[in-house]
Amino acid sequence: MKSNRTPFWLMAGLALLAGCSRPEVDLGVELSPNAYTVSVKILEYSEKVGALLRDSSEKTIAKVMGHEGTLVTTLPTVHLLPGESREVDRRKEHPFLVDSDTMPNRYQNFTTGEYLRVMLTLMPSGAPALAIHLDAPKVVGWEDVLGPGGMTYIYPQCQTILVHSTLSPRWSTWQIVDQNAEAAVVVRIDRPTLSPLLSGQDR
After folding, report:
1. pLDDT over 60 at 130, yes or no
2. Distance (Å, rounded) from C-alpha 20 to C-alpha 42?
3. b/e per residue, 38-47, with b = 16+ CB within 10 A?
4. What is the rounded distance in angstroms from the CA atom of residue 109 to the CA atom of residue 144?
5. What is the pTM of this model?
6. Quick one: pLDDT at residue 13?
7. At 72, is the secondary structure helix, strand, or coil?
8. pLDDT tens profile 114-123
9. Which residues pair with 118 in a beta bridge?
10. Where are the strands (E) in 68-149, listed by range?
């Protein structure tokens, strides 16, 4: 007689796989009742994963965002009214020792973190026009440099994600602002959940 029971080892294996699977990607945003909401994420990935973004649909963006090899940096949510601009500055300066004939213990700074500035206008049709500037420098390695006195100095090797663009995105949809083979910047803009504030009102 054939048994319909699933072997215990198979059930345990399936449970283990389920526990190790990556959770569903959260594409939700923090909406405001009286202001427009701008959400920005930086996605860093391998070239193979980035190739998927030839299809720039929100479904594909979510797939890349949820890939286990993708590093997702979520910037603080920005709430603003038409005609306003807002900044997010998470940059930090770090000193490092550099060689100098006259000042052997001279220091310079390198910067890491993200700086975001957005400005919103509404066109006569009611569609949004969003100006976005993003500068996100990071250290990707260190280089040993031999100084004149025989001392070795360690210099940071930096790279940055830089976006300066104006676009008219669709409402409530994640879209690509800029991308290359290894990184993309995605943005979403949402209307207020109630009604926009008038100029001079408190948020």
Report:
1. yes
2. 25
3. bbbbbbbbee
4. 17
5. 0.78
6. 42
7. strand
8. 999 999 999 9
9. 86, 132
10. 71-74, 78-80, 85-89, 92-98, 106-112, 115-122, 128-146
Residue of 69, 78, 73, 37 whose CA lies nearest to 51: 69
60 — phi, psi (to 5°)?
-70, -40
Q: Which residue type is seen at 180?
A: N
Q: How many residues does the chain have?
A: 203
How do residues 11-28 score in pLDDT, each as one tens digit? 444 343 343 334 556 777
| CB of 153 closer than 8 Å to CB of 163 | no
Grouping H, G, I as helix, E, B as strand and the rest as coil, residue 52 is helix
Residue 3 vs residue 41, higher pLDDT: 41
| CA 134 vs CA 38, 40, 87: distances in Å | 13, 10, 10
Q: What is the end-to-end Cα distance of the chain in Å, rounded?
A: 71
- The 10 Å Cβ neighbour count of residue 194 is 11
Q: Which amino acid does the sequence have at 29?
A: V
160 or 195: which leads in pLDDT: 160
107, with CB counted inside 10 A (0-12, 13-18, 19+), is exposed
